[in-house]
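Table 4 source record.
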Amino acid sequence: MKLNYLLALAVVSMLSSCSLFQNKQNSLGSNASELNAKWHILSIENKAIDKKVNGKEPVFSFDLAKNEYAAITGCNNLMGGFELKSSNKIKFSRGVSTMMACDNMEVEQGLSKILPLVTSYKISNDTLSFLDAKKALKAQFKLKKEDKSAQLKGKWELDYIGLTEKSINELFSTKKPTLEFNIKEETLVGNGGCNNYSGTYKVDAHRLKFGAIASTKMACSSLEGESAYFKNLERISSFSVDENHLTLITDDIAILRFKKVK
């Protein structure tokens, strides 16, 4: 009888732990990486925005690798920073802008007014909404679907790895991991610091998902870095390319960064 009671307690404890872990995971905001794109500005303060303003398409974009935003308003460009928090919370910091005078400045003035008030966001059916503390709608945007797969072309060498307590030089003292994309066949090859590997991937606009990774089984002095690298590849949900640097992102965290070597 006592044994059954102890077993029941253990099961309850395990279920509680799983529930707590699940809640913690959900609180991070499952679609943070979805922001990492360009968005056509649909409305500000419930007022529809024209598809072209002063001959330019009004667009709002996020760069999760740098935690920066930029807006093409049809007049002056706005730029600044942002901070992502739990449960789709977001805070924008005041940025800079160009100083032109235009006939139509409603997008620029509208964004400058609402961004300090935005406290959260939601994404549904490729539509992004900015909300204030009272959940009132401040602005809406539509995803600009772009084929960014060509940006991945080439060979890349790792120069930063996250979600580990050790630096990249401690984990890879002799050879750093590489990654090379074949954008026509959506396949990849590389070296994890010890073993060669290959696999597949899928790109949808800014989204990136790796398939199963197959690797050789060489015995090296340490596989700690390679193991961390492969685990991070499994976590990737989006990417960003800035000149000769490729950043791979999970949710709102940049966990792998490469420099182009070929």
